[in-house]
Every structure is written in C-alpha cells, then in structure tokens.
C-alpha cells in the first residue's frame, strides 16, 4: 500500500467527523430529535470532539452541545457531569472568536436551568474568562458572554454577587453603549438580572453609571431593547427610596410615558412596572409621578390592554392612592376609578381582580368624598359579589372584603349603601347600618327617603344581639323617627293590631 | 387680890352658870348645826354655780371668737379658690377661643387651603389632559410612520412584481392582458409595467439553511460558523531528503499574495496621473462658462448661413439622419447587440 492510500483513510475520517458534528448540530435545532440524540449517546460522542485537532470540528461540537443543553436540564447536567466545563473554560480564553461564541453559548445553555448548574459553572472559574470575553472586539462574542453572565446571575443573590465580584458590571455598562442593538439588549437584560436580587447589587449597578445610559435609550425604536431597558430600570428602582430617586433624577419622566403608548405589550407592561416601582416608595415620588401626568397615562394604558399587562398599572394606581388623600383625589380626577371598576368587572383572572379591588379600597378609604367617587361607579355590588362568590380565591375574598369595609366606613352616599341592607352578610351589614346611623340624624331628606325606600323596615327586621354594636346603631336610627313610625314598620305589627281588635270592647250605647 | 378673891368666889357660880348655859345650848346645838350646814351648803353651792356659769359664759365667748376667726379664714380660702377657678375657667375659655381661631386659620392657610386644593386638582387635571393629548399625538405620529413604512414596503414589492411581470406589457401590435381593447382606459398595472424596468436575469439563489426554531440567538445560528472549503491536510511524516518542514511549505503555499511595490503599482499610472491632474484643475476652476460678449453685440452682427445649409436644394441628409435610431434607455441589457457578420 502506498503512503497516499494510508493518508486517504485519515482524510476520510476527518471528513466524516466534520460531517457528523455538523449533522448533529443541525439535528439539535429541532426539539423532536433531542430524545433520539440523547438515547443514541450523543454526549459521550461529542465530548472527545471538543478536543479535536481541527478547530472547525471543535466549534461545531461546542455549538451542538450548547443546543442540546439548551433543551432540558438532564442534558445540561450531563454536560456538567462529563467534565466538559473546565475544557470549555480553558479554551474560552485561548481560542478564536467562533469558538468563544460557541463555548459561551454552552455555558449559557447549561447555566440557565437551575442554580446548582449555574453554581457548577461558577465553580469552574468560568466567570473570569467570560468577563475577559466581554472585552473582546467581536460584538458576537460580547453578546454571548453577556448572555451567559445574565443567565447565571438570574438565579439568586449569591450567583449575582459572584458575577459582580468578577467585575462584570462596568463592562456590561460599556456593552450598553455599543452600537449593536442585540448586544445592548442582552447587556441590559443582564444588568436587570443582576440588580433584581438585592439593594446592594442594584447599588453596584448604579455606581457603574448604568442609569444614565439606560435612561437615554428609552426612546430607542427597537421595542425588544425598550423592554429590557425598562425592566432594568424597574429592577433598580424597586429596592429603596434612594435608588428610585436616582432613577427619577435621570429625567426619565415625560419620556417613559410614551412607552405606555407603545405597540409592544411587554414594553407597556415594563413601563408601568417601572412607574409602579418608583411610585410605591414615598408620597413625594408619587406626587412627582402625578405631576408628570403619569397617572393619566397609566389609566389610559390600563384601558388599552388586557390581562397581565394591566396588573402593574392597577397596582401603581393603588400605591399612589394609598399614600395620601390628595394623591387619591388625583387618581380620581384622572378617571382612574371607572377604569379600575371596568378591570374588576371584565378580567377573568382572580389575581388581577384582587389587585383592582385593593386599589379601589385604597382610593376610597380616605374621606367621604373619595368613597362617594368609588361608590357612584357602582363598584360596591361587584366587590360584594366577588367577596361572596365561592369561586373567587381566598386572597380575592380577603382583598375585596377589606376594600368594602374601608370604603363603607367612609361612605355617606346613601343610594349606594341601600342595596347592601338587603344582601350583605352580617359582618358587612354592621358597617352599613353604622353609616346610616351616622348620616340620618343630620339629614331630614335622607330620613324621609330612608322610610319610603323601605330601608327602615329592613332595619327593623335585622336581628341584633342586645348590647352589640349593631343594636346600638339600630337604636340610633330608631331614635331619628317618631315611635309610631318605628312600630308601624316593625315586623309583627299587624298581628298586634289584630289582637287589639280582638280584645277591644265595642262601645254600645 | 380682891378681884381674884371675887372671881374665885364667883367661879363656882360661874361654873354652874356655864354648865347651865351649856346644857341649854346643847339642846339646840344639833339643830343649829344642821341649819348652819344647810345654809352654808346652799350658799356655797350658789357661789360655785355662779362661778361655773361665769366660766361657761367666758368659754363660750372665747370659743365664739375663735370659731368665728377660723370660719372666716375658711371662707376666705373658699372664696379665693372659687375666684381662682372662675378666673381659670374664663382664661381657658378664652384660650380655647384663641386657639380655635388660630388653628382654623393655620389649617386653612397652610394645610388645607381649599382654594389651593382646588387649584391643585385643576392643575393635575390640566396636566393630565396635556399628557393625554401629547401621548395621543405621539401615538398618531408613530402610527403614521408605521403606515408610511408599510406603504413604502408594499410599493417596493409591487415594483418588484411589476419588474417580474414586465413581459405582460402590451406592444403596439398585441395588447397585453392589462390593456384590454374593450376598456376605455388601460389597467393601472399597465402604467406600472410601462414604468418598470424588466428583471434581467435571476441568479440561482444560495439556498439558506432553514432553522425551524426561530428563537436561536444570532451567535448560535448555523450561518456563523466558518465552512471551510478544503480541510487542512492531515499530519504526514516528513519526506526523506533535504526538504523543508511540511508545515512551512504549506504556509508558503497558502500564504496570501504580497506583491512587491513595483508589481503593486498600476500599469496605467500615466493615465491616472493625467486624470488626477485634470480633476484638480477642474476643481480649481471657478467659472465654467466662458466670458461671453455683450448681448447687444450679437444683434448688430448679421447671420451668415453656411454654404452647405444655404443651398437652395436643401440640406444634405447624408450622415445627419439615421433610419435606425438607437434609444439606449429602452435597452433590455447593457451589452450592445453585435450584428452578425455575413
């Protein structure tokens, strides 16, 4: 055999290897193939190929591994158990940009499944090399590294702290300033993941000067980037008053309201989350949001979308109204109440209803005027039905009960209270009768109306334990009327009249 | 002594007398004694009683004075207290009045200024209206932009389609499908086809590798990997003989072209230099038009026609008129059609 024939064998083998990894990488893009590939023992075959002499084969093998690990955590765990990670980390620092991309992709795919897997990656010392990759010239490499860091930091505070300790934050902030949109997006998402765990982590992100860069990209036309930007800002602002003030000082305010009109639903959601996180801290911040017209914009936004997108907006209205009566009045004149009652009526999901009920309770609990504004939208019967309905969740029942109670205790708008005399359970009836007993002694027209609408009759029918609060209220109401009227409306009065007829001795001359 | 004797003589008498008298007295003695006791007791009793009465009277006077004194003191105290409390009540009432006024004033002025509150609510609603309007405008603007972009995209697509269907354009002889002779006006597509340039040739497109899962990140898509044409040669044993190392040879073989300075220089350097010179001259030239003589100069000059054109047989048509006009704008392709030579 000549030398050429011998070498031909090797060349064939090399071609076959290339073809094999390429096919596996191609097959791994389809989820239906994954199980078959797994059963065929693809992991053990790919692992030696990572150490192949031909760089292309190495890269493609890494890509295939990443794709496989992306699908489920079993495969990801297999990657960790197969001791592939140290190899990847080692070559991440050495090899060319294609290999770096593929290796970072594998790390990302492994780390995204669970904190344990992410911890395994951290234990391999991958963070330092990933941070070095963030300084690479190629935007693709930066993107892959930033994404891997983001997925690692997403799980918990310790992992985030590890990422921060590796010095990733300043480089991620630099990545935001790059011209590539995809890189900006991923870096913003990584910053959001880092800062979401604790105030200290958020503070490190702020110290790296991220807020100014994030804030000036709010008007970017790319909606996916906007989502990440707004989410990062809200994750920073949610921790403390100081951080929220820092975010506000970046002059996000009239600008962020335009995002509430965006076409993309998630941009809307994240924008209202950001406003909510800012408004929830102090009355001053809420006042700032109100002065910027944020409440009106959020109200419009609630009206223009459905489902979970609404939730942060609803909660924002509740937080603003909870701070003080002036702010609650601002919510009312921004037409927030009709919008909230609409949400309460039409949303199918319990948690959104619960949020709307809570927000309404916060608006109505300040003064009679607030309670009246809530009551005229005919919300109270809806709240009552939610409270009484067996289908609503426990949380919704508690929230709606609290809302009803806090509104009723301030409500002096009697037409809205009247239906409650007929169909409210005793624990709520107490407050209703209490309100009547407070209003009736001072209002002659209302007294008259109360008799003619049958309220007095209903009050007489209520069975109250003597000496209880309810009985006291009933007595107060009864004292507002002449005795014969009270007796006339008492149950069993006709019986007593008839008895008197029976016992009456006719006068016969 | 006589007296003594007389007395002694008389003593018996005297003794008798004495005895007699004593005996007489003894009869009444007891009675008298009792009477005397009675009298004395009565008298003494009277005197003691009178004394006691006197004492009582005096004690009463003392007590009266003392008690009166004490009572007056008590009374003074009570009056003082009553006065004090009355005064305090008055003061408190006045203080309440002052505090009431002041507090009301302060609250109305600083905390719950009704007009300020109204003003605030009005300002908030105004801001809200302004913001709503601005946002509405912004949304409208966005929508308009989107619509415009959409329209442009559609227009481009239509233009491309028109280019593709250019062969449906009607000719002078045969009307195309968009130019029905039974209709008054041709179809708008006909006009579009007239304007469009036909699509010349379609190169076979490079078949893209389809990726079913669209959410792969860009850096993990299959296109990013380099697809080498030739696999690098497998490590062979070095050949026998005075040859260089095989990697070195291959490096030499596949290294990129690095031309020498002379080879890198273009061959039409002179032409290029001239062109450059011309360009620079052109750049420095301030005015393109030559200086023309005054306009009235032409008027006085008589126009002398050419001999060739002033012939009475008319101008010669040879060489100035062609029967086959060339209109390069309507050419299908850039190449000139070469006439077949017979």
Automatic annotation (TrEMBL), chain A:
One of its GO terms (cellular component) is acrosomal vesicle. Keywords: Cell projection, Cilium, Cilium biogenesis/degradation, Cytoplasm, Cytoskeleton, Flagellum, Microtubule, Repeat. GO terms for biological process: epithelial cilium movement involved in extracellular fluid movement; filopodium assembly; neuron projection extension; sperm axoneme assembly. It is found in: Cell projection, Cilium, Flagellum; Cytoplasm, Cytoskeleton, Cilium axoneme. Pfam families: Arm (PF00514). It comes from the Eukaryota. One of its GO terms (molecular function) is microtubule binding. Important for structural integrity of the central apparatus in the sperm tail and for flagellar motility. PANTHER family: SPERM-ASSOCIATED ANTIGEN 6 (PTHR23314:SF0), SPERM-ASSOCIATED ANTIGEN 6 ARMADILLO REPEAT-CONTAINING (PTHR23314). Interacts with SPAG16 and SPAG17. This is Sperm-associated antigen 6. The lineage of its organism: Eukaryota, Metazoa, Chordata, Craniata, Vertebrata. The gene is SPAG6.
UniProtKB/TrEMBL annotation, chain B:
One of its GO terms (molecular function) is calmodulin binding. InterPro entries: ASPM (IPR051185), IQ_motif_EF-hand-BS (IPR000048), P-loop_NTPase (IPR027417). Residues 117-144 form a coiled coil. Keywords: Calmodulin-binding, Coiled coil, Cytoplasm, Repeat. The keyword Transcription does not apply. It comes from the Eukaryota. GO terms for biological process: establishment of meiotic spindle localization; mitotic cell cycle; spindle organization. It is found in: Cytoplasm. Pfam families: IQ. GO terms for cellular component: cytoplasm; spindle pole. This is Spermatogenesis associated 17. It comes from Suricata suricatta. The gene is SPATA17.
């Amino acid at each position: 055999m000549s030398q050429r024939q011998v070498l031909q064998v090797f060349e064939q083998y090399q071609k076959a290897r290339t073809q094999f990894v390429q096919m596996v990488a191609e097959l791994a893009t389809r989820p239906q193939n994954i199980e078959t590939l797994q059963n065929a023992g693809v992991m053990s075959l790919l692992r030696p190929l990572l150490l192949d002499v031909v760089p292309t084969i190495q890269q493609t093998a890494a890509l295939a591994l990443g794709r496989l690990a992306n699908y489920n955590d079993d495969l990801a765990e297999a990657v960790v158990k197969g001791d592939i990670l140290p190899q990847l980390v080692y070559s991440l620092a050495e090899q060319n940009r294609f290999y770096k991309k593929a290796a970072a992709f594998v790390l990302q795919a492994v780390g995204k499944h669970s904190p344990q897997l992410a911890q395994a990656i951290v234990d391999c010392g991958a963070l330092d090399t990933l941070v070095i990759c963030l300084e690479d010239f190629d935007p693709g490499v930066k993107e892959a590294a930033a994404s891997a860091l983001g997925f690692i930091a997403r799980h918990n505070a310790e992992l985030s702290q590890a990422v921060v300790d590796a010095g990733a934050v300043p480089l991620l902030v630099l990545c935001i300033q790059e011209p590539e949109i995809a890189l900006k997006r991923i870096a913003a998402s990584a910053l959001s993941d880092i800062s979401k765990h604790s105030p200290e982590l958020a503070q490190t992100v702020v110290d790296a000067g991220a807020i100014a860069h994030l804030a000036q990209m709010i008007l970017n036309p790319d909606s996916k980037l906007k989502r990440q930007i707004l989410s990062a800002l809200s994750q920073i602002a949610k921790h403390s008053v100081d951080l929220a003030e820092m975010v506000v000082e970046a002059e996000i305010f009239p600008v962020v309201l335009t995002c509430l009109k965006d076409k993309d639903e998630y941009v809307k959601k994240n924008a209202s989350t950001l406003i909510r996180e800012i408004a929830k801290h102090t009355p001053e911040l809420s006042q700032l949001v109100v002065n910027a017209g944020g409440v009106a914009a959020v109200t419009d936004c609630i009206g223009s979308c459905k489902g979970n997108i609404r939730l942060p907006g609803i909660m924002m209205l509740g937080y603003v109204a909870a701070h003080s009566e002036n702010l609650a009045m601002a919510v009312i004149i921004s037409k927030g109440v009709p919008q909230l009652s609409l949400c309460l009526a039409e949303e199918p999901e319990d948690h959104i209803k619960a949020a709307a009920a809570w927000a309404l309770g916060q608006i109505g609990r300040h003064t009679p005027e607030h309670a009246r504004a809530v009551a005229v939208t005919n919300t109270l019967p809806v709240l009552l039905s939610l409270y009484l309905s067996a289908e609503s969740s426990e949380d919704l029942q508690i929230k709606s009960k609290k809302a009803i109670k806090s509104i009723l205790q301030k409500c002096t708008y009697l037409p809205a209270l009247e239906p409650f005399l007929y169909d409210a359970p005793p624990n709520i009836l107490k407050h209703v009768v209490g309100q009547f007993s407070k209003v009736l002694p001072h209002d002659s027209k209302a007294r008259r109306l109360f008799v003619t609408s049958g309220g007095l009759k209903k009050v007489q029918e209520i069975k109250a334990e003597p000496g209880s609060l309810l009985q006291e209220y009933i007595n107060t109401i009864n004292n507002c009327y002449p005795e014969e009227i009270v007796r006339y409306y008492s149950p069993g009065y006709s019986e007593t009249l008839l008895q008197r007829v029976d016992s009456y001795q006719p006068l016969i001359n | 002594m006589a007296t003594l004797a007389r007395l002694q003589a008389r003593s018996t008498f005297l003794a008798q007398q004495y005895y007699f008298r004593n005996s007489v007295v003894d009869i009444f003695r007891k009675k008298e004694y009792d009477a005397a006791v009675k009298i004395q007791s009565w008298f003494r009793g009277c005197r003691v009683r009178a004394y006691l009465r006197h004492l009582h009277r005096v004690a009463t006077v003392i007590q009266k004075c003392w008690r009166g004194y004490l009572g007056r003191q008590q009374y003074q105290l009570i009056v003082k207290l009553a006065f004090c409390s009355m005064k305090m009540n008055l003061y408190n009432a006045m203080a309440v009045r002052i505090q009431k006024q002041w507090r009301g004033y302060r609250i109305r002025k600083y905390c719950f200024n009704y007009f300020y509150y109204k003003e605030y609510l009005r300002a908030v609603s105004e801001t809200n209206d302004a913001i709503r309007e601005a946002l509405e405008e912004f949304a409208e603007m966005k929508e308009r932009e989107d619509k415009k972009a959409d329209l442009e995209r559609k227009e481009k697509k239509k233009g491309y389609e028109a280019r593709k269907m250019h062969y449906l354009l009607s000719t002078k002889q045969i009307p195309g499908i968009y130019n029905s002779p039974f209709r008054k006006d041709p179809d708008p597509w006909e006009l579009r086809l007239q304007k469009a340039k036909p699509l010349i040739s379609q190169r076979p497109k490079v078949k893209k590798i389809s990726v079913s899962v669209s959410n792969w990140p860009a850096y993990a898509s299959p296109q990013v990997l380099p697809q080498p044409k030739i696999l690098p040669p497998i490590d062979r044993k070095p050949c026998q003989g005075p040859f260089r190392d095989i990697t070195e040879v291959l490096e030499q073989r596949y290294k990129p072209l690095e031309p020498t300075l002379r080879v890198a220089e273009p061959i039409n350097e002179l032409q290029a230099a001239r062109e450059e010179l011309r360009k620079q001259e052109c750049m420095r030239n301030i005015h393109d038009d030559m200086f023309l003589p005054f306009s009235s100069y032409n008027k006085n000059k008589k126009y002398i026609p050419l001999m060739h054109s002033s012939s009475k047989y008319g101008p010669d048509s040879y060489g100035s008129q062609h029967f086959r006009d060339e209109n390069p704008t309507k050419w299908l392709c850039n190449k000139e059609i070469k006439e077949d030579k017979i």
